[in-house]
C-alpha cells in the first residue's frame, strides 16, 4: 500500500510538471487555456480562475491541458466517460464562456505554427528539466560513489587482445604507475588515462609481488566502463562474489536455474568480482558454454549455461547470461554544486540515449516487447525503490520523468511528438492538414495506444503470475 501511494503521488506530480510546461508555454504565447486537468473523466473537484478550470478528474492515470481551439483526443475521451451528457460542470462551462466573451487569450489555431511547436515541446522539456533537477538534488546530498574507486587498482580480469593484455597485465595484478605518475587507487588510474588519450604510455604494475613495466595504448574513455571496454583495465569492484538481484525470464540464466539471491562464486573455476569482468570473459569465449559455481544459502550448485547475444545496458549487443546484479559497495558523499550539476547532466544524457536505443531496438527486433512495462510494472519499481529509501525514490522519479518526456516526443498522433510532426508537415506544405484526415489519424492512433496499453498491462500481469508460480 505504501508503494502504491508513492506511485500515485509520483504519477500525479509527473503529470502536473508535464502539463505545467504546456500551460506556461500556452500562456506565454497568448493562448487561452480552458482547463488544466489531472486525470480523465468526470470532474471531482477544482477551482476556476481567470477562465481556466483547474480540476482533478476521476481517473488519475494521466492528465491534460485544454486550450481554446485545440483539436485533441483527450477532450473526446473526456466527453465519452465524463458526465452522462458529456458536458463540463455548469459553473466551469459558464465561466469559460464568459472568458471567451471577455477575450482572454486567443485560440490555439490563431498563433503561429512555431509557437504551437513550442507549446508541444514544452511538456517533454519540463520532464527533462525535472529529471535534471531531481538528480542534482540527489547528488548534492546523497551521491553514491563506488568504494573500489578509492581502493588499490587491482585487476579483476584482463580481456584478450586488449591494450592491457598486450602490455603484459593479468588478472590480480595491481597498477601502481601510469606515464610516470603514481596511481594509488582506481580514481587516479582513471585520471591518468584521461590525460593520456591516443598515446602509448609506460605502465608499472605488481605481479606476484614483482614490480614489472610495459607500454599501453590509451583509447579515449569517459568513465570507468570505458576504461574496461576500450583499454582492458577491469577493476575488482568488491571482495565478495557477484550478487544476483533478479533473473530475467527466458534468458540463459533462467533456463540454467540461476535464481535471485544467488551469488556467482566462479565461472569455469575463475573467481570474478564484477559484472564487467563476467561479460568480458563471455566475449572472449565467443558464446561457448560456461560452468557457474553458485552460492545458494548453504548449498553450492553447479550450473551449465550457454550465453546468448543480447542487449547489455541498452547500448550494445554482446554475449550475456540475463540477470540483474546487486550493485557493488558504495560510499555516500555530498558533491559540490558544479560537480553535482555536471553529474546530473551526464547521467540524464546517458539514460536518454539508452532509452532511445531501447526504442530503436524494439523497432529493429533487437529488443523484445516483453521487456516493456506498464503502470503495474512501474508501480512495482516504485515500491521496490520505496523499500530502499527516499533517495532511491528520487532517482526512480527522475528516470520515470525522463521516460515520460522521451515517450511523449514519439511521432505518434495524440502524443506531443505527433502534434509537432503535423506542424512540420503543414509548415512544409504551407497549408493545414484537412480536419477530417486528422480526425481519422487520431482515431487510428487512439486504437493503437489502447492496444499497446493492453499489451504492456498483460506483460506486467504475466510477470506477476509467473513470478509467484510454485516451482
How would you describe this structure in keywords?
single chain, 471 residues, alpha+beta, Pdz3 Domain, 5-stranded antiparallel β-sheet, 4-stranded antiparallel β-sheet, elongated, disordered C terminus
What is the structure about, briefly put?
By secondary structure, this protein is an alpha+beta fold. The chain has helices at residues 2-28, 73-81, 90-102, 113-141, 163-166, 186-194, 224-231, 252-256, 275-285, 337-363, 375-388, 390-408, 416-429, 435-467, and strands spanning 33-49, 52-67, 143-146, 155-157, 174-178, 181-182, 199-207, 210-218, 234-235, 242-247, 263-267, 290-295, 302-305, 308-312, 316-320, 323-325, 330-333. It has 14 helices and 17 strands.
Q: What does this protein structure show overall?
A:
The protein has helices at 2-28, 73-81, 90-102, 113-141, 163-166, 186-194, 224-231, 252-256, 275-285, 337-363, 375-388, 390-408, 416-429, 435-467, and strands at 33-49, 52-67, 143-146, 155-157, 174-178, 181-182, 199-207, 210-218, 234-235, 242-247, 263-267, 290-295, 302-305, 308-312, 316-320, 323-325, 330-333. It is of the alpha+beta class and 471 residues long. Among the domains are: 147-235, Pdz3 Domain, CATH 2.30.42.10; 243-309, PDZ domain (Pdz3 Domain, Roll). The strands form 6 sheets. It has a 5-stranded antiparallel beta sheet with strand order 13-12-11-10-16. Strands 6-5-7-8 form a 4-stranded antiparallel beta sheet. Strands 1-2 form a two-stranded antiparallel sheet. A hairpin with a 2-residue loop joins strand 1 and strand 2 (52-67).
Amino acid at each position: 500500500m505504501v508503494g502504491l501511494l508513492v506511485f500515485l503521488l509520483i504519477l500525479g506530480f509527473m503529470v502536473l510538471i508535464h502539463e505545467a510546461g504546456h500551460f506556461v508555454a500556452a500562456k506565454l504565447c497568448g493562448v487561452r487555456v480552458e482547463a488544466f486537468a489531472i486525470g480523465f473523466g468526470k470532474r471531482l473537484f477544482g477551482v476556476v480562475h481567470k477562465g481556466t478550470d483547474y480540476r482533478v478528474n476521476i481517473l488519475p492515470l494521466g492528465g491534460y491541458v485544454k486550450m481554446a481551439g485545440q483539436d485533441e483526443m483527450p477532450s473526446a475521451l473526456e466527453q465519452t466517460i465524463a458526465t452522462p451528457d458529456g458536458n463540463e460542470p455548469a459553473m466551469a462551462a459558464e465561466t469559460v464562456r464568459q472568458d471567451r466573451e471577455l477575450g482572454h487569450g486567443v485560440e490555439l489555431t490563431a498563433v503561429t505554427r512555431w509557437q504551437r511547436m513550442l507549446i508541444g515541446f514544452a511538456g517533454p522539456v519540463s520532464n527533462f528539466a525535472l529529471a535534471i533537477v531531481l538528480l542534482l538534488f540527489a547528488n548534492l546530498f546523497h551521491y553514491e560513489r563506488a568504494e573500489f574507486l578509492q581502493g588499490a587498482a587491482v585487476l579483476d580480469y584482463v580481456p584478450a587482445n586488449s591494450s592491457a593484455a598486450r602490455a603484459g597485465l593479468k588478472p590480480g595484478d595491481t597498477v601502481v604507475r601510469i606515464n610516470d605518475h603514481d596511481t594509488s587507487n582506481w580514481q587516479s588510474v582513471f585520471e591518468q588515462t584521461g590525460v593520456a588519450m591516443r598515446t602509448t604510455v609506460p605502465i608499472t604494475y605488481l605481479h606476484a609481488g614483482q614490480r614489472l613495466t610495459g607500454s599501453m595504448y590509451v583509447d579515449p574513455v569517459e568513465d570507468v566502463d570505458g576504461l574496461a571496454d576500450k583499454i582492458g583495465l577491469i577493476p575488482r569492484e568488491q571482495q565478495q562474489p557477484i550478487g544476483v538481484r533478479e533473473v530475467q525470464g527466458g534468458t540463459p540464466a533462467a533456463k540454467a536455474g540461476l535464481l535471485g539471491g544467488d551469488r556467482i562464486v566462479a565461472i569455469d573455476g575463475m573467481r570474478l568480482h564484477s559484472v564487467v569482468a563476467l561479460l568480458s570473459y563471455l566475449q572472449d569465449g565467443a558464446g561457448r558454454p560456461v560452468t557457474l559455481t553458485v552460492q545458494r544459502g548453504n548449498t553450492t550448485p553447479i550450473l551449465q549455461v550457454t550465453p546468448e547475444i543480447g542487449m547489455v545496458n541498452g547500448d550494445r549487443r554482446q554475449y550475456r547470461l540475463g540477470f540483474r546484479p546487486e550493485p557493488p559497495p558504495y560510499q555516500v558523499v555530498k558533491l559540490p554544486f558544479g560537480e553535482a550539476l555536471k553529474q546530473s547532466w551526464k547521467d540524464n544524457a546517458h539514460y536518454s540515449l539508452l532509452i532511445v536505443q531501447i526504442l530503436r531496438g524494439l523497432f529493429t527486433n533487437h529488443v523484445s516487447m516483453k521487456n516493456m512495462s506498464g503502470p503495474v510494472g512501474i508501480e512495482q519499481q516504485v515500491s521496490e525503490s520505496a523499500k530502499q529509501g527516499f533517495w532511491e525514490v528520487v532517482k526512480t522519479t527522475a528516470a520515470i520523468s525522463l521516460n515520460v518526456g522521451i515517450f511523449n516526443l514519439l511521432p505518434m498522433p495524440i502524443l506531443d511528438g505527433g502534434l509537432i510532426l503535423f506542424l512540420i508537415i503543414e509548415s512544409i506544405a504551407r497549408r493545414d492538414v484537412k480536419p477530417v484526415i486528422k480526425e481519422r489519424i487520431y482515431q487510428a492512433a487512439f486504437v493503437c495506444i489502447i492496444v499497446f496499453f493492453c499489451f504492456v498491462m498483460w506483460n506486467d500481469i504475466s510477470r506477476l503470475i509467473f513470478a509467484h508460480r510454485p516451482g
